[in-house]
């Protein structure tokens, strides 16, 4: 009688990736609210709209991807990877453009929180790595069963 070793399904990476994606999506929903406030009251309508649209896009991707991962659906992995990459690109753009004196997402020269923005890259990178891991691909293939 042959003994076979069971390969883990990947919930150890898929579930944390889903949780991080959902938390990131909720964080960006706060940015959506901030963008809406900027559109309503800021004299710079373009900056307010940019803030609103960017946060809404990233929030939508991360929340849809996180729910898809919880449900162990292949689209969840793909959308989470795209959402985490979009969030990371957004944070890097804020850092680079802020260093050049171009401020958006509600930031001005006197309030540019470089350390805070750099720290935001950590959960985005972690989400990206966990969602891209081979065990997560097994998770979305095998699911909860």
TrEMBL record:
The chain crosses the membrane at residues 12-40, 52-72, 79-105, 111-131. It comes from the Bacteria. Keywords: Membrane, Transmembrane, Transmembrane helix. This is Uncharacterized protein.
């Amino acid at each position: 009688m042959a003994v076979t070793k069971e390969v883990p399904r990947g919930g150890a990476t898929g579930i944390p990736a889903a949780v991080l994606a959902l938390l990131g999506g909720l964080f960006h929903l706060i940015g959506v609210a901030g963008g809406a406030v900027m559109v309503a009251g800021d004299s710079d309508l373009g900056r307010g709209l940019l803030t609103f649209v960017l946060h809404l896009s990233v929030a939508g991707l991360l929340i849809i991807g996180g729910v898809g991962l919880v449900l162990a659906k292949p689209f969840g992995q793909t959308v989470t990877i795209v959402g985490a990459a979009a969030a990371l690109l957004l944070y890097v753009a804020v850092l680079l453009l802020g260093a050049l004196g171009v401020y958006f997402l509600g930031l001005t020269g006197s309030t540019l929180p470089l350390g805070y923005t750099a720290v935001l890259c950590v959960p985005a990178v972690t989400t990206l790595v966990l969602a891209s891991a081979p065990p997560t691909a097994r998770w979305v293939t095998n699911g909860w069963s």
